[in-house]
Design a protein that fits this description.
Blueprint lengths: L17 H6 L3 E2 L3 H9 L1 E6 L9 E6 L4 E5 L3 E3 L2 E3 L4 E5 L15 E6 L2 E8 L11 E2 L2
Antiparallel strand pairs: 1-10, 2-3, 3-4, 5-6, 7-8, 8-9
C-alpha cells in the first residue's frame, strides 16, 4: 500500500495524480497551499444559478478582475452523490496526517454554502471529489 507510515509519502506521485494522468505532464492536482493562496488573493462568494446554468458554486474574483468558478458538486460515496449544490469538495495532492496502515490519504478542500471559509479535511480517498487542476509555470 502507498501513502502510509512505512513509505512516508505525503504527496501524490505523478502516476496517482488524476490531473497529470488525464491532462499531461504540466498539470497537477493542487496542494493545500494552492487553495489557501486562492483564498488570500481573491474575493469570493457563494453564487446560486451561476450564469443561468442551474449550478451553484463559489466565484473567486482576483484583484485584476479575472474570475474562477468552482461548482458545488458535492462528493460521491459509493453510488450516492452527497451535498450536491451546497458543498464543493476538491481533492488536494498532499496530506499531513499519517497513521500506521492508514489508507485514507486524502486532504480535501471544502467550500460550503453557509460557511464563509475553506475547510481542510483528511478524509477517505475512496470518496469521489472534484479536481481543479493547476499547471506548472
Amino acid at each position: 500500500a502507498k501513502y502510509n507510515n512505512e513509505d512516508k509519502l505525503t504527496e501524490l506521485e505523478t502516476e496517482n495524480d488524476a490531473a497529470y494522468v488525464n491532462m499531461g505532464s504540466s498539470w497537477r492536482i493542487p496542494s493545500v497551499k494552492h487553495f489557501f493562496e486562492l483564498l488570500e488573493k481573491t474575493n469570493w462568494e457563494f453564487v446560486k444559478n451561476y450564469n443561468n446554468t442551474n449550478v451553484n458554486g463559489i466565484l473567486f474574483t482576483g484583484k485584476n478582475g479575472n474570475t474562477l468558478f468552482l461548482p458545488c458538486a458535492g462528493y460521491k460515496y459509493g453510488t450516492n452523490v452527497n451535498k450536491k449544490e451546497v458543498e464543493g469538495h476538491y481533492q488536494t495532492r498532499n496530506s499531513q496526517k499519517l497513521r500506521k496502515n492508514d489508507l485514507k490519504f486524502s486532504h480535501r478542500c471544502i467550500f460550503k454554502e453557509n460557511d464563509p471559509g475553506l475547510r481542510i479535511y483528511n478524509d477517505n480517498k475512496c470518496d469521489g471529489c472534484s479536481v481543479r487542476a493547476v499547471t506548472k509555470k
